[in-house]
Amino acid sequence: MTEDTLTFSEEDLETLVEPHNNALVILFLLSNIRIKHVLVDPGSSTNIIRSTVVEQLGLLDQIVPVSRVLHGFNMAGKFTKGEIALPVDMSGTVQNTKFHVIGDDMVYNALLGRP
User: Fold this and answer.
1) Is 41 exposed, middle or buried (0-12, 13-18, 19+ CB in 10 A)?
2) What's the whole-model pTM score?
3) Does domain 22-112 have CATH number 2.40.70.10?
Protein backbone atom coordinates (compact mmCIF):
# COMPACT_ATOMS: atom_id res chain seq x y z
CA MET A 1 0.00 0.00 0.00
CA THR A 2 1.44 3.37 -1.06
CA GLU A 3 1.29 6.17 1.46
CA ASP A 4 1.25 9.78 0.22
CA THR A 5 3.11 12.40 2.23
CA LEU A 6 2.16 16.05 2.62
CA THR A 7 5.12 18.30 3.44
CA PHE A 8 5.52 22.01 4.12
CA SER A 9 8.45 24.37 3.57
CA GLU A 10 9.53 27.66 5.15
CA GLU A 11 7.79 29.42 2.24
CA ASP A 12 4.46 27.98 3.43
CA LEU A 13 4.93 29.74 6.76
CA GLU A 14 5.38 33.24 5.29
CA THR A 15 1.71 34.24 5.60
CA LEU A 16 1.24 32.60 8.98
CA VAL A 17 0.90 34.81 12.04
CA GLU A 18 2.08 33.16 15.26
CA PRO A 19 0.49 31.88 17.40
CA HIS A 20 -2.09 30.52 14.99
CA ASN A 21 -5.25 28.47 14.87
CA ASN A 22 -5.67 28.57 11.11
CA ALA A 23 -7.47 26.05 8.96
CA LEU A 24 -5.37 24.11 6.44
CA VAL A 25 -5.76 26.14 3.25
CA ILE A 26 -3.79 25.06 0.18
CA LEU A 27 -3.62 25.60 -3.56
CA PHE A 28 -3.60 23.01 -6.31
CA LEU A 29 -3.46 22.88 -10.09
CA LEU A 30 -6.47 22.17 -12.30
CA SER A 31 -5.66 22.05 -16.01
CA ASN A 32 -2.37 23.84 -15.24
CA ILE A 33 -4.23 26.72 -13.54
CA ARG A 34 -3.49 27.51 -9.89
CA ILE A 35 -6.60 27.31 -7.72
CA LYS A 36 -5.93 29.20 -4.51
CA HIS A 37 -7.86 29.25 -1.26
CA VAL A 38 -8.78 25.55 -1.05
CA LEU A 39 -9.85 24.31 2.38
CA VAL A 40 -8.76 20.84 3.47
CA ASP A 41 -11.53 19.56 5.75
CA PRO A 42 -11.02 15.98 6.96
CA GLY A 43 -14.41 16.21 8.70
CA SER A 44 -16.23 16.67 5.39
CA SER A 45 -17.55 13.65 3.53
CA THR A 46 -17.38 15.26 0.09
CA ASN A 47 -15.35 17.50 -2.23
CA ILE A 48 -17.00 20.77 -3.24
CA ILE A 49 -16.08 23.37 -5.86
CA ARG A 50 -17.72 26.70 -6.69
CA SER A 51 -19.44 26.89 -10.08
CA THR A 52 -17.64 30.19 -10.75
CA VAL A 53 -14.30 28.32 -10.58
CA VAL A 54 -15.56 25.70 -13.05
CA GLU A 55 -16.81 28.52 -15.29
CA GLN A 56 -13.43 30.29 -15.19
CA LEU A 57 -11.78 27.02 -16.20
CA GLY A 58 -14.14 26.84 -19.19
CA LEU A 59 -15.52 23.49 -18.05
CA LEU A 60 -19.21 24.22 -17.38
CA ASP A 61 -20.17 21.79 -20.16
CA GLN A 62 -18.49 18.95 -18.24
CA ILE A 63 -20.77 19.23 -15.21
CA VAL A 64 -22.98 16.14 -14.92
CA PRO A 65 -26.39 17.48 -13.81
CA VAL A 66 -26.94 15.38 -10.69
CA SER A 67 -28.63 17.36 -7.95
CA ARG A 68 -27.78 16.44 -4.36
CA VAL A 69 -28.52 18.10 -1.05
CA LEU A 70 -25.45 18.84 1.04
CA HIS A 71 -25.94 19.44 4.75
CA GLY A 72 -23.56 21.56 6.82
CA PHE A 73 -22.95 21.56 10.54
CA ASN A 74 -26.12 23.59 11.05
CA MET A 75 -28.08 21.00 8.99
CA ALA A 76 -29.11 23.66 6.47
CA GLY A 77 -29.40 21.97 3.07
CA LYS A 78 -27.85 23.31 -0.14
CA PHE A 79 -28.63 21.87 -3.56
CA THR A 80 -25.72 21.16 -5.89
CA LYS A 81 -25.67 21.99 -9.60
CA GLY A 82 -24.09 18.65 -10.41
CA GLU A 83 -20.83 16.73 -10.31
CA ILE A 84 -17.57 17.08 -12.19
CA ALA A 85 -14.39 14.99 -12.28
CA LEU A 86 -11.26 17.12 -12.40
CA PRO A 87 -7.55 16.21 -12.60
CA VAL A 88 -6.15 17.67 -9.37
CA ASP A 89 -2.37 18.16 -9.35
CA MET A 90 -0.70 18.57 -5.96
CA SER A 91 3.10 18.63 -6.08
CA GLY A 92 3.26 16.57 -9.27
CA THR A 93 0.78 13.90 -8.19
CA VAL A 94 -2.31 14.04 -10.39
CA GLN A 95 -5.52 12.38 -9.26
CA ASN A 96 -8.90 12.48 -10.98
CA THR A 97 -11.19 13.84 -8.25
CA LYS A 98 -14.99 14.06 -8.14
CA PHE A 99 -16.39 17.38 -6.93
CA HIS A 100 -19.94 18.46 -6.18
CA VAL A 101 -20.51 21.82 -7.88
CA ILE A 102 -22.25 24.43 -5.77
CA GLY A 103 -23.67 27.69 -7.09
CA ASP A 104 -23.87 29.44 -3.76
CA ASP A 105 -21.09 31.71 -2.67
CA MET A 106 -18.69 30.23 -0.16
CA VAL A 107 -15.52 31.51 1.49
CA TYR A 108 -13.21 29.04 -0.30
CA ASN A 109 -12.88 28.22 -4.01
CA ALA A 110 -13.02 24.52 -3.20
CA LEU A 111 -13.20 22.15 -0.25
CA LEU A 112 -11.35 18.84 -0.12
CA GLY A 113 -12.96 16.34 2.20
CA ARG A 114 -12.76 12.57 2.67
CA PRO A 115 -15.21 11.22 0.10
Assistant:
1) middle
2) 0.77
3) yes
